[in-house]
Design brief:
Layout (H helix, E strand, L loop, with lengths): L2 H25 L10 E4 L2 E4 L2 E4 L2 H15 L1 H25 L33 H10 L3 H17 L27 H8 L9 H10 L1 H7 L9 H5 L5 H9 L2 H8 L20 H17 L11 E3 L6 H16 L7 H9 E5 L2 H18 L15 E3 L8 H17 L24 H10 L3 H4 L7 H4 L2 H14 L2 H22 L2 E6 L11 H10 L7 H12 E12 L9 H10 L1 E8 L10 E7 L7 E7 L21 E4 L17 H9 L3 H4 L1 E3 L7 H4 E3 L15 H6 L4 E5 L13 E4 L1 H9 L16 E4 L9 E4 L4 E2 L5 E3 L5 H8 L2 H10 L7 H5 L5 H4 L4 H15 L12 H4 L7 H34 L21 H17 L34 E4 L9 H13 L4 H11 L8 H11 L1 H8 L6 E5 L7 E5 L7 H29 L4 H34 L8 H6 L9 H5 L5
Helix pairs in contact: 1-3, 1-6, 1-7, 2-3, 3-15, 7-15, 10-13, 13-14, 13-15, 14-15, 16-17, 16-20, 16-21, 20-21, 30-34, 34-36, 37-38, 38-40, 39-40, 42-43
């Protein structure tokens, strides 16, 4: 199957069907935004002047009412989906030869118009007027109308066996069958041409089309609070077939083999796991369980009594696979193949879903499986196959009391043999309130009200025991009224029976096997109704819908039956799911578990297929296996199964309780369980705390370099000192990328006056553990990468929820950092929580060896922190930055190349030394924990988080540092940050003797030398000052070669090009789209550009820019153009003349652009705009209209 083709086709098909149905609806005047005239003239209905048969009036009215209730877009999308499903079904059936007449309806074997058009005279389909068909056929120009009639008639015929997918004759949905179906660009044409016929051979194609059809909708809603109608799209996930086989074979298949140990069925189950060997006591309990089940069937398990439920059946993939296994079971018992399909559909398989369209496809998929085995399946008139696949409906807005009274009183009168009309309800007569069965109005109302949130809670709805006991009587009563009542009571009875009573009956049953891939949705995605429902009904599993389904699944499962679901792996490990995990491990037997890495199911997180026996069996041994993405073949199936690796284990669940939190650490050996059981935990030696959540980072957080540095305080030791500093901004630990030992110090937070503004922002902001603010800590990032990294934070920081932290005097913060950066802690964390989200609870559960408490290895940890600190501070975006490493290694008269080589050598040494220290740290801790047989002390290079020498990047940094020196941010005369206040206040030019700072903080960038103080000239001057005159030419060439000098380019041309085209991009990347040097630009022609230092900008900067640069440049350009005009006239060759003309044309365009820029600049200069640096770059950058470059990139987007 070519999934790529399906993935390409289905999302576009959704758009095409929606468009086609929309056009049809508008043609019928159903779009409320485009009102049209509608009038009836005889047997013609005129809509916007176009004639339609008057018979469409009733259907049109029904659609108009539905649109008024649900909205035009919702109805159009639903009916587009319905027609997509119907046409997909017809396409599958025509290619399989399942249509009664044997002709293709949508295509032709030779690629012509649909084959059925060649055989219209032979058709005998419901509602098809043969005379009209012949008339349309012979007319020669009515093929579209003819085809429409035939296609609708085909749908009417299919209604007989598939009423859930193909509605009855004259249903309103047929009115919105799109027009122009025979065109080569019609939805039908694409359905036929875009998917190869070979891809339709397996019914699995239906599921893939369903998933891909709703994929765009899923992308729209994912990550948001999901509305009830969007839950199917947000949670739909098609399960790879081999995983479905695993689920079915190890639940239903296991049950059959327990009852029939000598069965050959095992040979037909490639993903069946042999049961682990049990103790005699456990085996006796298992034998007793299956005996009870067999005794219910008279001593041997009867295939007809086996029941399988998928409570979130989607498009029916699991049910279809269960069908395959059930067929094999029946065949083993000697049933005739032709008898098997109806038995399976009627007695064995049950499915529920909240998505009507998914349930339609599930029902269709099962019928196609059955039709494959019984070619006469659809031939029995009046005896269509019975299905137990249903969509949960919602009763919100229904007049439940009226419905109940109409139905009950109709039943009472039928019971008494009286004629009854529902109109009697409103005639004032006394009516009886109890039926002979004992049922009352309240019973019927309770049933209807049970589904008030049906489309939100779906199959999670529990039927109360009192109602459960009456369901059989309710179903009988409703069936009686549906067949014998008057029009209104029949309509109500049919609605309640199909939409509520039958689904409630399925919800109330218990099954031998409950098998599902339930919806995955965390609380952030749940709407308020669903969140409250989960919290109230499933407090242990409320964190995610999949966990709720796991817990709910056992109430559907018979005692001794199997509960088999594939879900996210998080229930196995995370503290959030500890309650439900303990409940499962304590109360059920984990029979087998298939643990899968990221990507195995085609999604970016780990998953687990678990099979539980619904019985508590102490010391039962389960089978565990692990499959990584690399274990799959090209078709996405395991190359061998189970995969033979070090995680292929048998284990009891009791041993999991030896590890804090009871993670399902099935692969762990005895030595590790011993470590966890005998050693104290970090929680006993340190305080591990979660940090602040501001709830509005755009308001309270800044990158440290955005704000006035004089309003920042670094290194304060406590809240009182912070308050007394009268500063506004303080260092903020916000987590960040994978980095070890030290770093990720980018942010400051507004904690002025002890966080006054943040405190007043509650309850939005969550200020956790303020007593730990500004204390020395060990910290890590909540959401990590492939590796876990911890960092040392000295005094002075407040910490974020993403920068969780540990504090300890007894253990020592640096010792904690050393432990967390070891292979030992990484190994333990993968046991406790193998996801990439490392919570406080995970760290608290880590065992602590004596060697850590003694302070051994502290010297090594301090050296690691020192090396990482020096590395972090070697970049100017760190507040501890002192001087460019290249400049620091410069020797006057020497080359730039040599200085960089010295930096390269230093970095290589730091890398090597860090590796030695980390290996020693690992070696010490591995020995301390006794894990020599499990772990290696080696450290891979990609786990050393120090910067490497990179010639191009390092030269970009050198240019950036030179710009900083020009701006007065740095000085060659003194280390560190020299000026970063605001508005140029207190700027002292005497601090820049070796290399003077620009007088106004405005540095022109031009493609040729118009100004003496332009950026290119000053970079050259900078290199000259640092390295001297002797090597200036060599150094400029080496610098520009490093920056990507082009062939034939001079060093001057190259540095100008880099500054003009690349510097600002690099600057935005370095400063994370919060630049401190702002690029004012005239536009595409780059007639004039200049950098302005944010911290020196003041209300007079734009006026100075205009008068010192923009206005004079216009005169200079005009003079140059005039000179070029003379030169062109005096040119001695056409080549010379052409070159001069090209130069003149460019300058002319630049001058025009510069004049427009000046016109735009003048009013802004007159406004004398001031900046409040506390507002941050994002706000301030937006004050200058289009004068600045990259406005959208800097002012747009969400705050982190």
């Amino acid at each position: 199957m070519n999934r790529s083709a399906l993935k390409k086709y289905a999302p576009q098909a959704r758009l095409d069907f929606i468009e086609a149905v929309t056009l049809r609806a508008r043609r019928l005047g159903l779009d409320p935004t485009l009102p049209v005239s509608v009038e009836q003239t005889g047997d013609v209905l005129l809509i916007a002047g176009q004639p339609f048969p008057v018979s469409v009036a009733k259907q049109r009215t029904a659609l108009a009412q539905r649109i008024q209730q649900q909205g035009f877009s919702a109805v159009v999308e639903a009916l587009a989906y319905t027609w997509f499903n119907r046409l997909v079904a017809i396409r599958f059936m025509e290619l399989k030869g399942y249509l009664s007449h044997g002709y293709r309806v949508l295509s032709h074997p030779q690629g012509q118009q649909p084959e059925i058009l060649d055989h219209v005279q032979h058709l005998d389909l419901p509602g098809l007027n043969k005379a009209e068909v012949i008339r349309l056929k012979t007319a020669g120009n009515q093929d579209e109308a003819l085809y429409r009639e035939i296609l609708l008639a085909q749908c009417h015929e299919l209604h007989r066996n598939m009423p859930f997918l193909f509605e009855a004759l004259d249903d309103a949905t047929e009115l919105l069958l799109p027009d122009n179906l025979l065109r080569t660009d019609s939805p039908i044409a694409h359905l036929v041409s875009d998917i190869e016929e070979a891809d339709w051979q397996e019914v699995e194609v239906i599921g893939w089309l369903y998933q891909f059809y709703i994929s765009d909708k899923k992308d729209e809603v994912i990550g948001k609070v999901v509305k009830s109608e969007d839950i199917p799209a947000a949670t739909q996930l098609f399960t790879p077939n081999w995983i479905v086989q695993y689920l079915v074979q190890n639940s239903l298949g296991r049950l059959w083999l327990m009852a029939n140990p000598g069965s050959s069925l095992k040979e037909k189950m490639p993903y069946y796991i042999e049961p682990a060997e049990q103790t005699p006591e456990v085996q006796a309990q298992l034998d007793a369980l299956i005996k009870v089940r067999m005794d219910e069937d008279g001593g041997t398990l009867n295939p007809e009594s086996l029941t399988v439920l998928d409570p979130a059946c989607g498009s029916g993939h699991i049910l279809a696979e269960a069908y395959n296994l059930l067929r094999a079971i029946y065949e083993e018992r000697g049933y005739r193949l032709r008898d098997i399909p109806r038995l399976i559909l009627q007695k064995n398989l049950y499915g529920l879903d909240i998505d009507d369209r998914a349930a339609q496809l599930a029902g269709f998929a099962l019928l196609m499986k059955a039709r494959e085995d019984d070619r006469r399946l659809f031939d029995e008139e009046g005896n269509p196959p019975h299905l137990n696949v249903m969509a949960i409906q919602q009763s919100t807005g229904l007049p439940d009391e009226e419905i109940a009274r109409v139905i009950l009183n109709a039943a009472i009168h039928i019971e008494g043999g009286d004629a009854f009309h529902s109109g009697q309800l409103f005639g004032g007569g006394q009516l009886e309130t109890q039926h002979g069965s004992g049922l009352t109005v309240l019973d019927l109302r309770q049933l209807v009200q049970l589904f008030e949130h049906g489309k939100t809670f779906g199959s999670l709805i529990s039927v109360p025991d009192t109602l459960k006991a009456k369901l059989g009587k309710i179903v009988d009563l409703l069936a009686t009224v549906r067949s014998k009542g008057d029009d209104l009571s029949r309509s109500y009875a049919s609605q309640v029976l199909e939409q509520f009573a039958w689904p409630a009956s399925l919800l109330a049953l218990q099954y031998d096997a409950v098998v599902a891939n339930p919806p995955y949705m965390g609380q952030k995605g749940m709407n308020s109704d669903l969140k409250e429902f989960a919290k109230k009904s499933y407090p242990d599993s409320k964190a995610d819908l999949f966990a709720v389904f796991i817990e709910r699944g056992f109430s559907w499962c018979r005692h001794g039956g199997f509960h088999s679901m594939v879900t996210m792996q998080s229930w196995m490990f995370l503290p959030t799911f500890e309650g439900v995990r303990r409940k499962l491990l304590d109360g059920k037997m984990l029979s087998s578990l298939l643990h899968m890495s990221n990507g195995v199911m085609g999604i970016a997180f780990g998953t687990a297929a678990s099979v539980f026996l619904n019985s508590r069996i102490s010391s039962g041994v389960g089978s565990f296996s692990y499959c990584a993405l690399s274990d799959l073949d090209e078709a996405g199936r395991p190359c061998e199964f189970p995969v033979k690796n070090d995680r292929l284990k048998n284990s009891t669940v009791e041993r999991f309780f030896e590890i804090p939190g009871s993670p399902v650490a099935y692969w762990v050996g005895d030595e590790v369980f011993t470590v966890f059981s005998r050693l104290p935990k970090i929680s006993e030696c340190a305080d591990v705390r979660q940090g602040m959540a501001t709830a509005d980072n755009g308001r309270f957080l800044r990158f440290w370099y955005e704000v006035n540095n004089s309003k920042c305080s670094f290194g304060v030791s406590g809240r009182q000192q912070a308050k007394e500093s009268h500063s506004k901004w303080f260092p903020y630990n916000k987590g960040g990328a994978f980095r070890k030992w030290f770093g990720n110090n980018d942010y400051v937070v507004n904690w002025e006056n002890d966080g006054e503004e943040l405190w007043s922002f509650r309850p939005n902001s969550v200020i956790r553990n303020p007593d730990y603010y500004f204390k020395e800590s060990a910290s890590w990032t909540l959401l990590g990468s492939s590796y876990f990294g911890a960092r040392y934070f000295p005094e002075g920081f407040i910490f974020d929820v993403n920068g969780m932290s540990a504090f300890s005097v007894r253990l020592g913060v640096k010792s904690i950092v050393a432990y967390l950066n070891s292979v030992v802690s990484s190994y333990f964390l993968k046991i406790i929580n193998p996801s990439m989200a490392f919570q406080v609870g995970d760290i608290m559960r880590l065992p602590v060896a004596d060697v850590l408490l003694s302070g051994a290895g502290l010297d090594g940890a301090e050296e690691c922190i020192s090396i990482a600190t020096s590395d972090w501070n070697s970049f100017e975006e760190a507040w501890g930055f002192s001087v460019s490493p290249i400049v620091d290694k410069a020797i006057s008269g020497d080359s730039l190349d040599s200085a960089w080589r010295r930096v390269e050598s230093d970095k290589a040494y730091s890398l090597s030394r860090m590796r030695e220290l980390e290996v020693e740290n690992n070696k010490m801790l591995i020995a301390a924990y006794g894990l020599e047989s499990l772990l290696s002390c080696d450290v891979e290079e990609d786990q050393i988080t120090l910067s490497r020498a990179d010639r191009q990047r390092d030269m970009q940094s050198l240019v950036s540092y030179s710009i900083g020196c020009m701006m007065g941010r740095y000085s060659l005369d003194e280390p560190g940050l020299v000026y970063a206040h605001g508005a140029g206040v207190d700027f002292d030019s005497s601090r820049y003797k070796m290399f003077s700072a620009d007088v106004d903080g405005i540095i022109p960038i031009t493609d040729e030398s118009w100004f003496e103080d332009d950026a290119a000239e000053r970079v050259r001057e900078f290199v000259h000052v640092v390295w001297g005159d002797e090597t200036l030419v060599e150094n400029m060439e080496w610098l520009t070669d490093s920056l990507g000098r082009k062939s034939g380019e001079s060093a001057d041309e190259a540095i100008r090009r880099y500054l003009s085209t690349s510097f600002y991009k690099d600057h935005l990347q370095t400063y994370k789209k919060r630049p401190i040097y702002w690029l004012f630009s005239s536009g595409k022609q780059k007639a004039f550009e200049c950098l302005v230092y944010l911290h020196r900008y003041n209300e007079g900067t734009l006026s100075r820019m205009r008068m010192e640069y923009v206005v004079p440049l216009q005169s200079r350009m005009q003079a140059r153009i005039d000179k070029l005009t003379d030169d062109i006239d005096n040119a001695t060759s056409s080549a010379q003349q052409k070159a001069l003309q090209k130069r003149k044309d460019k300058l002319t365009k630049q001058l025009e652009e510069l004049r427009r820029f000046d016109e735009n600049l003048r009013p802004y200069a007159d406004q004398r705009i001031t900046l409040d640096l506390d507002d941050g770059v994002k706000v301030n950058y937006g004050k200058f209209g289009n004068l600045l470059a990259e406005v959208k990139a800097i002012t747009g987007g969400k705050e982190d």
